[in-house]
Each structure stands twice: as C-alpha cells, then as structure tokens.
Amino acid sequence: MTANTIRRIGVFTSGGDSPGMNAAIRAAVRTATKNGLGVMGIRFGYQGMIDDDFVEMYHESVSNILQRGGTILKSARSDDFRTEAGRKKAVENLRKHKIDAVVAIGGDGTFRGATVLHDEFGYPVVGVPGTIDNDLFGTDETIGYDTALNTAMEAIDKIRDTADAHDRLFLIEVMGREAGFIALETGIASGAELILLPEAVKKIEYIRNTLNDVFKVQRRSSIVIVAEGDETGGALTLADKLRDDFGKYDMRVSILGHLQRGGSPTSHDRVLASRLGSAAVQALLDGHRSVMVGVINYKTTLTPMHKTWSKKKSIDFELLEMAKVIR
Ligand code: ATP
Q1: Which CATH code, of 2.70.70.10, 3.40.50.450, 3.30.460.40, 3.40.50.2300, is assigned to 3-144+265-310?
Q2: Domain boundaries of the chain, sorted by first residue
Q3: Which of 17, 155, 206, 310 is most buried, judging by how many CB atoms fall within 10 Å of its CB?
Q4: Which of 171, 174, 190, 175 is nearest to 238 (CA)?
Q5: Pairwise CA distance, residues 17 & 76, whole Å
Q6: Residue 63: count of CB within 10 angstroms of its CB
Q7: Rounded to an integer, what distance in angstroms lies between the CA atom of residue 232 and that of residue 7?
C-alpha cells in the first residue's frame, strides 16, 4: 500500500484511559478531514474492531471534547484480539469499512497489538502515546501523565494538611504499573520524605532507618510515596511491615487509585495531545507504516512501533538522588 492510497483512516483508544485522549482524537479527526480523508471512529478499542462497533466521524463529531477527561470513543482491554481468530475478524471489519490505516491511542499493550496488526496483515498503524504511566520508550512524556501528576499532587497536599495536624505518618500509593515516573515526580512536587519506586528497590531496613532519621530530626508529619509496582508490595503491605516500629506515629495508608486517571486535562496535556494526534495523521500521509509519534526534547519524533514496548524508558536517577538531599 502506498501513501496516496490512504483515503480513510480508523481512530481508536485502547487500554487504560488517560486525560487528553479526547484532545488527541479531536486533532487526528480534524487533521484527517482537513486533508480530505474519511474517518471512522472505532469504539472500545480492539474489542470494538472485532465486534464491528464503528462510527463515522466528521469535523463536528469532535466539537467541545478538548477539555473532557476519559474518551468519547470508549476504551477496553480485549483478550479476543490476542487470538489469531480475533485479529482476523478485526481486519475483516476494517476492510469492510474501507479503512486503509489506523491511529491507535493507548499504552504499551495497545502498541504490542498494533505491531501485530501491522506485521501480520500489513496494516499501516501509527501510535499516539496515551497513558498516565509515562512508561513508553520514544517520548519524553505521554498524554495524561501531566494531569495525573497534578491530580496526585493536589490530593497529597490535602493529605499533608491532616498529617501535619496530627503529626502522622502517611503511606500514599500512586499508580504507574511497573514504572515509577508518577511516584518520583509527585514525591518531589509534594515534598515527600521518602519515595519508593520499582526502579530503585529499597530494603525494609533502609526504609526503617530513613524514617527513624526523619522523626529524629524533629517530630513531624511524614509522607512516604509508594509506587503501586514497588517491590514492597504496595502501601498496605508496607504498613504491615512498619507497624511495630512506627505505629506510634498514628500511621495511615491512602491509595489514590483511579482518581489519578480522571479529570479535565491540563493545558500541557491538551497541547501535547493536539500536537501528537495531528502528527499521527501527518505521519500516515507521509508514508510511515508502523511508528509511534512522540516528543523528545520538544521536537516531534517517530519511533518504530516495536521499540516503544521492547525498550525500557528509564526514570531520572539524578532527580531521585536530588529528592534525598532536599527531603
Ligand atoms: P495502559 O498502559 O494505560 O494500561 P495499555 O495500552 O498498555 O494501556 P493493555 O491492557 O496492556 O493497555 O493493552 C490494551 C490491549 O492491547 C489489550 O487488551 C489487548 O487487546 C491488546 N494487546 C496487548 N498486548 C497484545 C499482544 N501481545 N498481542 C495482541 N494484542 C495485544
């Protein structure tokens, strides 16, 4: 298939939703229609592709969604798409609707699926990184990450007020799956006394000693940020291990959970999503076939799709060291 045979594209969101997905859909739809392409929205990600849940989209279909969290195209995780029969059905439906290429908005799982779609069937796919976890290689930031950071930070600020009033020790668990990006940056932004991440595993003795040091300096509230994927097993498990030594500080656990996924995207995420949604369609028009659009050092970049999930993006260890100095 050559670049000029693309007449109609499919757009979908998949995996965990993230704030800014709607802004990315809007940008992709409008860039496509401005360039004379037809657009089909595919609802519920790969599952909708299999279930034939398609809807035609126009310029007006994406009016007034820029500021909304979630995704108007809905999202899903699909076990059927992991099977050959499921993928065959999905491609039959794509062909039935005369879709020549797809824009996939999601995380690493979504891009594994997109890689298979391209490699097995030759379908042109361009990925747009939409996940709060920021764990994709090939972009400095993913759509939704900045909003999630701000949401978590605001929640932790509120917890700090009550922790301070009672001189309490709070263990706060944040999202991020196997990655510690959210934990690291919210930890710094909220002045946490200790940040625990899967990328920098700490023994329980280290955690105890650090907290003892903190409470020795002055009796005061303390906040420990625990990434959900941390080796300690999460905030509740860690609390059990610390109860004997630190129970006297009226230790409490707070798991921020799904509130980190929702809400209106920040201006930063709206701009990022607009830029990447538009760049994805441009990449297809330019003849790219299995890539993800991202931003590296403020420049829009393309990364081969398979590298986005097979290579690991590292956290900034210098930032983690700095956090220890200023806690
Ligand atoms: P997030 O990181 O926010 O959770 P994600 O895109 O990583 O988002 P997943 O649930 O991991 O979310 O993946 C989304 C969907 O992609 C899966 O439900 C599945 O349908 C498809 N998928 C994932 N891995 C594969 C694979 N190896 N082969 C085919 N399809 C896959």
Answers
A1: 3.40.50.450
A2: 3-144+265-310, 146-262
A3: 17
A4: 171
A5: 9
A6: 10
A7: 51
Residue 179 β-bridge partners: none
Identify which of 252, 232, 235 has the alpha carbon closest to the alpha carbon of residue 173.
Answer: 235
How far apart are the C-alpha atoms of 48 and 80, rounded to whole Å? 10
Level-2 CATH architecture, domain 146-262: 3-Layer(aba) Sandwich (3.40)
Of 214, 233, 271, 221, which Cα lies nearest the Cα of 27? Answer: 271
**pTM given for the model:** 0.96
Spell out which residues line ligand 1, taking CB within 6 angstroms: 14-16, 46, 77-78, 81-82, 106-110, 112-113, 116, 131, 133
Q: How buried is 4 (Cβ within 10 angstroms: 0-12 exposed, 13-18 middle, 19+ buried)?
A: exposed
pLDDT per residue as tens digits for the range 193-207: 999 999 999 999 999
Marked catalytic residue, from 17, 53, 100, 133: 133
293-320 residue pLDDT tens: 999 999 999 999 999 999 999 999 999 9
